[in-house]
Amino acid sequence: MDLVELTAHLPVLEVETGEAVVREGSRTGSLFVLESGALAVTRAGVAIADITAPGAMVGEIAALLGGDHSATVTAVTPSRLRVARDGSAFLRSSPDVTLLVAAEVARRLQSLVAYLADLKAQYAGIPGLDMVSDVLTHLADNRGAAIEPGSLREPDPLY
Q1: Structural domain of residue 11, as residue ranges?
Q2: Which of 44, 84, 87, 129 could link 149 by a cystine bridge, Cβ 3.0 to 4.6 Å?
Q3: CATH value at residue 21
Q4: What is the value of pTM for the model shown?
Q5: Same structural domain for residues 70 and 130?
Q6: What percent of the chain has pLDDT over 70?
Q7: Is residue 17 located within the same domain as residue 82?
Q8: CA-based diameter of the chain, in Å?
Q9: Are residues 62 and 89 in the same domain?
Q10: 49 and 85 share a domain?
C-alpha cells in the first residue's frame, strides 16, 4: 500500500500554478500528500527539489519535529494533494503511514550522507577548503539544534 491509498480518506486541496502549499517559516501542522501535479521546493530562495511523484510528502519534517516549515513548496502545475490537518496525529494514527514516511526520510538521509562523504573526499587536504570536512562533521554531529539558513561568511570570497 502507498501513501496515495493510505490518504484516500483525507480532504483534498487543489492548488493552481504558482500557489504556495506551505511557506518557509510558517507553521501549519499539516502534512500533505501529492496525488497529482508538480511542486517546487525552495529554501531561502534557492531551488532545492521538484516533486512530481504521486505519494510524495510535503510538511513531514515540520510534522515530525513539531516546528515551522523549513522550505516553501509551490505548485508548478495545477496540483491535487491530500491533507492531514494535524500531521503529527496522522503519523501516530497508522504504523503503515509512519513506516512509509520514515522510509522516505531515511532514503533522503542516505542520499545526503553519500553526497557529504563525496564532498569530504573531494576537499580533503586542499588548503583553504579542507575545512569543509570539519564543517560537515560538525553538522552531522549536531543533534537537535536548529539550523538557520544563511552564513556570516564573506558573500564574495576571493577563492
Answers
A1: 3-93
A2: 44
A3: 2.60.120.10
A4: 0.78
A5: no
A6: 84
A7: yes
A8: 57
A9: yes
A10: yes
Residue 93 has pLDDT above 60, yes or no: yes
**pLDDT (mean) for 84-110:** 92
- How does strand 57-58 pair with strand 72-75? unpaired
Kindly write down the DSSP assignment for every residue of 68-133, as one continuous string: --SSEEEESS-EEEEEESSHHHHHHH-HHHHHHHHHHHHHHHHHHHHHHHHHHHHHTT-TTTTHHH
CA distances from 128 to 32, 131, 132, 140 (A): 42, 7, 9, 21
Structural domain includes residue 151: no
Residues 67 and 22 placed together within one structural domain of the fold: yes
- Please tell me the total count of domains within the chain: 2
- Residue 49 above 60 pLDDT? yes
- 10 Å Cβ neighbour count for 108? 12
In angstroms, the CA 119 to CA 78 distance is 37
